[in-house]
Amino acid sequence: MRLRTPFAMTALAAGLLSAAQVNADSIDLTMYYPVSVGGALTDVIDNLVDEFESEHPDINVEAIYAGNYDDTRVRAMSAIEAGDAPQLSVLFSIDLYELIEQNAIVAFDDLVETDEEREWLDSFYPGLMENGQLDGKTYGIPFQRSTIVLFWNKDAFEAAGLDPETPPENWEEMADMAATVREASNGDQWGVMVPSTGYPYWMFQAFAFQNGHRLMSEDGTEVYFDDPAAIEALEYWVSLATEHNAMPDGTIEWGTLRQNFLEESTAMMWHTTGNLTAVRSEANFDFGVAMLPMNT
């Protein structure tokens, strides 16, 4: 799939190949969706469904929270195999290949009938649409788009003698700043944490992109993990712990990293923009958000 927007994790509102339940007076639709970010997404979904149903009183939508993204994919595929597929599901863009192989998804292009519907489909920002498209057809529309960013604790930077308004712009600066924070805190605070569970491939992709490398071909049929740039990216990630003593060795949990940052266990973290609202609401310190540092 084309990944024109670096590090973009795409949740696709996909149309699965399942007939709606049509009753005498209404059409019944089922939609699975995941929650994997901070914030009250269930409330957002419920409000969207209520708004849609008020505009279309003859259509009923049952929105079902199905766990995280992996849980939702498994539940959707299990329902398809059982002959009880949902008509809609919010999934990763990378799930598209499996859905096509299982003949379980229908392109939006095949459903568009009017100029108004075509205008709607064409109204999304093209860069956010591309990894929901394949062979000239659109199988998913962007929903809950997020990207990895660097969060940093400005108070921790200032306490370590760093400029609180200047985040690292390159790999060397991030390693040096993280090590400085670790040393200045007498080992009480880590300099940086990058999660290695949940979506480690997403983090690895980010490191590779920041080293000028793409991990796979545009058509998604080849991977380039053994490229020197990919190896260098992985080595740098590991070195933050083993060489610079700026990051904990071993596993760093995706699900608890935001809390680690809020509790000031680490001065910097790589995490999704989907957690920005939660961090803004809960942080008791001044913080900033920046683009990821690159290798220069």
Characterise this structure.
With 296 residues, the protein is α+β, with helices and mostly antiparallel strands. The protein folds into two domains: 9-146, Periplasmic binding protein-like II (D-Maltodextrin-Binding Protein, domain 2); 148-290, D-Maltodextrin-Binding Protein, domain 2 (3-Layer(aba) Sandwich), CATH 3.40.190. It contains eleven helices and eleven strands. It has helices spanning 41-55, 69-81, 96-101, 115-121, 126-129, 154-159, 171-184, 200-209, 228-242, 254-262, 276-282; strands at residues 9-15, 21-22, 27-33, 59-65, 88-92, 133-134, 137-138, 140-146, 148-153, 268-272, 287-290. Strands 1, 2, 3, 4, 5 and 8 form a six-stranded mixed β-sheet that branches. The chain has a three-stranded antiparallel β-sheet with strand order 10-9-11. A two-stranded antiparallel ribbon has the order 6-7. A hairpin with a 2-residue loop joins strand 6 and strand 7. The longest helix has 15 residues, at 41-55. Residues 1-10 have low confidence and may be disordered.
